[in-house]
Write a structure and sequence with these properties.
Layout: H1 12-35, H2 54-60, H3 65-68, H4 83-90, H5 105-113, H6 133-137, H7 143-147, H8 164-172, H9 196-205, H10 210-218, H11 230-241, H12 247-257, H13 266-269
Helix pairs in contact: 4-5, 10-11
This protein binds heme C (5 copies).
C-alpha cells in the first residue's frame, strides 16, 4: 500500500502545513488591517464621472455648501445635489454657463435622460456605526472639522480618519471645535476673527447671567469672580486670554451654555 502513491506525496503534509501558515498569516494581517481603529481611508480620492471642482464652485465662486448639500442641517444624511441643481447654472438655454464644455457633457446627458449622475462616494462609515449630520451642525461643529478644506479641493479626498478613536477624540474635547452656528460652513473661520464684545453680548442677550460667563472664563474650579456686565467680562477675558479671542475661550462658553455633552457610550454610535 505504501508504494501506491508517488514519492513526492510524502512531502504533502509539510507543504500543506507551510501553506496553512501562510494563509493564516495573511488572514491575520487582513483582519487586523480592517478591524483595528487605525484602519483609515485618509487620502482616498476617487475619480468622479464629471470633473466637478469644489475649488471653483465653493472656493472661487464662494457658493455656500448648503446650496448643493441642501439637507445637511435637517437630515442625518448629507445629500449630493441632483442634476437640477447643476442645471440652475449649466442648463442649455439663455444664460447657461459653459453649456458647450466637454466637461459638462455628462451633466447635459444626465439631464436629458433624467438619470442621476453616479458620483463615487468618498466617505463611508461601516453600517454598524450610526452617524447624523444635522446633530453635529446644529451643535456648532463645522464641515471643516470632519472633511477638511473642501473649498480648496479640485477633487474631494478624505483627510480625516473617521475612525472610532477619531470620533471619540472630539467627543471628549468638543470645546476645541465648537463655533457660533452662523460660522458652520465658513471653512476659513478662526476664533480670533470674532469680535469679543459681540460674542459676550450675544450670550447676555440669550439670557445667560454675567456671573456664569465669568466663571467659565476663569475656569470652573476657580473661585467665583464678580462680574456685573459686559465691561467686567471684557476685562476678565482680556486678562485671561489676551488681546484676541481664542478657540478655548469660545468653545468652553458654548459647551457650557449650549449644554453640549457628546456621547461616549457604545450604544450611542452602535445602535
Ligand atoms: C455646486 C454644488 C456644490 C457645492 C456648492 C458644494 N458641493 Fe460638495 N459636492 C458636490 C457634488 C456634485 C459632490 C459629488 C462629487 C464629488 O465628490 O466631488 C460633492 C461631494 C462632496 C463631499 C464628498 C461626499 C462623499 O462622497 O463622501 C463632501 C465632503 C462635500 N461635497 C463637502 C462640501 C462642502 C464642505 C462644501 C462647502 C464648502 C461643498 N461641498 C459645497 C456639489 C457641491
Ligand atoms: C451658481 C451657478 C453654478 C452652479 C449651481 C453650478 N455651477 Fe458649475 N460652474 C459655474 C461657473 C460660474 C463655472 C466657471 C466657468 C468658467 O470658468 O468660466 C462653472 C464651471 C463648471 C465646470 C467646468 C467647466 C469647464 O469647461 O471648465 C464643471 C464641470 C461644472 N461647473 C460642473 C457643475 C456641476 C456638476 C454642478 C452641479 C453639481 C454645477 N457645476 C453647478 C457655475 C455653477
Ligand atoms: C462630525 C463630523 C462631520 C461633519 C461636521 C460633517 N460631516 Fe459630512 N460626513 C461625515 C461622515 C462620518 C460621513 C460618512 C457618513 C456615512 O457613511 O454614513 C460624511 C458624509 C458626507 C457626504 C456624503 C453623503 C453621501 O451619502 O454620499 C457629504 C456630501 C457630506 N458629508 C457633506 C458635508 C457637509 C457639506 C458638511 C457641512 C455642512 C458636513 N458634511 C459636515 C462627517 C461629518
Ligand atoms: C469635531 C467634533 C466631533 C466629531 C469629530 C464627531 N462628533 Fe459626534 N458629536 C459632537 C457634538 C458636539 C455632539 C452634540 C452633543 C450634544 O448635543 O450634547 C455630537 C453628538 C453625537 C451623537 C449623538 C447624537 C444623537 O443623534 O444621538 C452621535 C451618535 C455622534 N455624535 C456620533 C459621532 C460619530 C460616529 C463620529 C465619527 C464618525 C462623530 N460623532 C464625530 C462632536 C463631534
Ligand atoms: C462616538 C461614536 C462611537 C462610540 C461612542 C463608540 N464607537 Fe465603536 N465605532 C465607531 C465608529 C465610527 C466605528 C467604525 C470605525 C472605522 O470604520 O474605522 C466603530 C467601530 C467599532 C468596532 C469595530 C472595530 C474597530 O475598532 O474599528 C468595535 C468592536 C466597536 N466600535 C466597539 C465599540 C464599543 C465596545 C464601544 C463602547 C465602549 C464603542 N464602540 C463606542 C464609533 C463609536
Amino acid at each position: 500500500m505504501g508504494n501506491f502513491f508517488p514519492r513526492w506525496t510524502n512531502w504533502l503534509p509539510l507543504k500543506l502545513a507551510i501553506a496553512l501558515v501562510f494563509i493564516l498569516a495573511g488572514v491575520t494581517v487582513g483582519v487586523s488591517y480592517y478591524f483595528t481603529p487605525k484602519y483609515t481611508r485618509v487620502g482616498y480620492e476617487p475619480t468622479q464621472p464629471v470633473p466637478f471642482s469644489h475649488k471653483i464652485h465653493a472656493g472661487q465662486l464662494g457658493m455656500d455648501c448648503r446650496y448643493c448639500h441642501s439637507f445637511v442641517e435637517q437630515s442625518g444624511h448629507a445629500n449630493v445635489p441632483t442634476n437640477q441643481t447643476c442645471l440652475n447654472c449649466h442648463g442649455v438655454g439663455k444664460g447657461g454657463i459653459r453649456t458647450a464644455s466637454p466637461k459638462l457633457e455628462k451633466v447635459q446627458a444626465a439631464a436629458a435622460s433624467g438619470k442621476p449622475i453616479e458620483w463615487v462616494k468618498v466617505h463611508k462609515l461601516p453600517d454598524y456605526a450610526y452617524f447624523d449630520h444635522s446633530v453635529h451642525l446644529n451643535r456648532g461643529v463645522s464641515c471643516v472639522s470632519c472633511h477638511g478644506k473642501v473649498k480648496d479641493m479640485e477633487v474631494v479626498r478624505q483627510v480625516e480618519p473617521h475612525s472610532m478613536g477619531w470620533c471619540l477624540d472630539c467627543h471628549r474635547n468638543p470645546e476645541s471645535k465648537l463655533r457660533p452656528l452662523d460660522q458652520i460652513t465658513n471653512l476659513d473661520y478662526l476664533a480670533s476673527d470674532l469680535d469679543r464684545k459681540s460674542f459676550y453680548q450675544g450670550l447676555l442677550d440669550k439670557g445667560v447671567k454675567a456671573e456664569e460667563i465669568a466663571q467659565v472664563i476663569v475656569g470652573e474650579n476657580k473661585p467665583a469672580p464678580t462680574a456685573g456686565g459686559i465691561d467686567d467680562l471684557l476685562a476678565l477675558a482680556g486678562k485671561t486670554f489676551g488681546k484676541t479671542v481664542s478657540q478655548q475661550e469660545v468653545g468652553t462658553q458654548l459647551k457650557k451654555h449650549w449644554q453640549i455633552q457628546p456621547p461616549e457610550t457604545c450604544a450611542a454610535c452602535h445602535r
